[in-house]
Design a protein that fits this description.
By secondary structure, this protein is mainly α. It contains 18 helices and two strands. The chain folds into two domains: 182 residues, MFS general substrate transporter like domains (Growth Hormone, Chain: A); 260 residues, MFS general substrate transporter like domains (Growth Hormone, Chain: A). It has a two-stranded antiparallel ribbon with strand order 1-2. A hairpin with a 5-residue loop joins β1 and β2.
Length: 492
Amino acid sequence: MDAGSTSSLRLLSAEPKIRVLHLSWLAFFITFLVWFNHAPLMAAIRETLSLSKEQVAALLIMNVALTIPARIAVGSLVDKIGPRMMYSALLAISGVICIAFALSTNFVMLAVTRLLLGFAGAGFVVGIRMIGEWFPAREAGYAQGLYAGLGNFGSAVAAITLPAVAIAFGGPEGWRWAIGLTGLIAIAYAPVYYLLVTDGPEGSTYFKPRKSGAMEVTSAFDFVLYGIMQAPIVLALGLLAWKLGSGGLHLISQAAEWAAYLGLAAVYALQLADTWRINNSVFDKPVARIFRYKFTQVAVLDIAYMITFGSELTIVSILPLFFKDTFGLSLTFAGFLGASFGMTTFFARPIGGWLSDRLGRRNVLAWCLAGTAAGYIGMSQMGTETGVVFAVAVTFLCSLFVNAGNGATYAMLPLIKRRLTGQIAGMVGAFGNVGGVLYLTLYSFVGINTFFLFAAATAIAGLALVWIFIEEPNGQIAEEMPDGTIAMIDVT
């Protein structure tokens, strides 16, 4: 095997790029620990502050609401100021907000701080740019998969350890100490990350967008497509406002709900205006061919991640109750089986990235979506007739394809346009959360077996889009150096 293969990633070596990989996945791990620290302690929080069922549901919604726009905002900022500064600042700020959540004495304070902690969920985007700077194309998929797989485990560790930490501190207020501790960890790690990493290898150039604001596109067609692809993000936020209002929770007035809709419409109009400000030149003067990229690639990756990660968020939420009600399992065992769908990310994401490096990114993503479709068709057959063993087996197999698909999506992403990697990662990540909102909304209207069939249909549609529109990264991409010279970056 040649030295350029993925086997050259010696994960216990002292190489600078390996050190950055480990420091970055640990930063991601901590942001997810902070983001999901409330979930396993919600019963204690509810009891301490006498929260209603509707208030608990609202907190769960607010935890993900701002993550959708936050991933786009953080993606833009990381391209501008660099991942070293961005991750350090995000860790420190999230830690402070986390401590404020732990000190909350009423629902309003809980809601505001939980809403702001949605920004912690955007930490994932920062490391995508950092890993893209440090690892060459032949290793990028595996490195991105390791980063995401290990970092995502923060939510599982929160579920496993924080209840024990709360019990160790004792008393009804133990949850405050457990949550506050995660905030202190984030604050302490912020300067560690800042001091031990750089934005790229020594002597490398960190390419930044030419203009701050909307993503740069390189053709009139891409301009129109970019505008269209911004709409689902705004619509998903509108769905969340509907859920908080007339959609069932009735925690905001009808006037406030309509104000939210009008505000989101204004935001979308401003986004389109900013897109025009950044990109109107493409209608007057064609971008030089050497600098062009196809936004179609980004749009299809948006949809692919919406299908894989978005459906995963929903499945993890609904499976525990399904296993308990269908097979009469204990709450603890049913919860473990449900959570296992997401826990395979620990190894399935790296596998998806590793296979992408070796077998081609387009091919692996297509096979993952095909496997996802087959898996959801299999899950639609789960029930008392097929038995619990079949249900566990098909759930496990489906989760492998779903999480490998997540890894395959991000294996391709850094190879589209280097200076826009953060913005592209932010948009794709936001679509993952949009998918969670859309799939959960669908689930509220149909039975679980019908839901699985719908999820399978979307995976088949995603497969068709990947097969038709995705092009395997090949050759080199061009970026302009600060002195005006052109740098060529290998993506094969």
